[in-house]
Amino acid sequence: AWEQVGNGETAILGTLGNFSLVIGKAKSRKSFFLNVATSAALGKDLILERFRGCLPTDQRNVLYFDTEQGKYHVQLALKRICKQIGQSVPEHLSVYGLRTLPPSERLQVIEYAVYNTPGLGFVVIDGIKDLVMSINDEAEATMIASKLLKWTEEMNVHIVTVLHQNKSDNNARGHIGTELINKAETVLSVTKSEQDKD
Description:
- This protein is of the alpha/beta class.
- 35% of the residues lie in helices and 25% in strands.
- It has five helices and nine strands, in the order E-E-E-H-E-E-H-E-H-E-H-E-H-E.
- The chain has helices at residues 30-42, 71-85, 103-116, 138-155, 174-183; strands spanning 2-6, 9-14, 19-24, 51-53, 61-66, 93-97, 120-126, 158-164, 186-190.
- It has a six-stranded parallel sheet with strand order 6-5-7-8-3-9, with helices on both faces.
- Strand 1 and strand 2 form a beta hairpin.
- The longest helix is centred in the last third of the chain and has 18 residues, at 138-155.
- 40% of the residues are buried.
């Protein structure tokens, strides 16, 4: 579904039928990275001269769910994606801000959209922790991982989601972090460059 290109080599970051996990500390630009992944999935050109999407022609549609940001910041993310792919209104992208909904309803909205979006190939969930009541509840962690595995396999899509790392170490937070790391096809850790703040 998407890959990284560099130094003459290609690394597959995500394939259809699987999910990947992006982890990082607070303010490490995880959401920006998800914007890059979305742009790569939607566009035909290399994004940031490094990332490329390769969705099948009959699975070009992309869903983007933001669970924690307000409308203004969701709009900013959308505008950034539009700029990166050079389209003012991307025809294959649907963006949803779910901040105002309780966790169980967020989960229902995502599940409904995944199963009812024709030609779906790529799904972004920015804030997987906001689909559960507690990141340390083992049953909820298992349930979320099972949902991601079920959706990706049954609909043959790739889902990329994001989770914070602990402040004290580089581990993903809670039981949900352990469960998702164990089941994800790819785990990417995002950090802000110390040399280049931009």
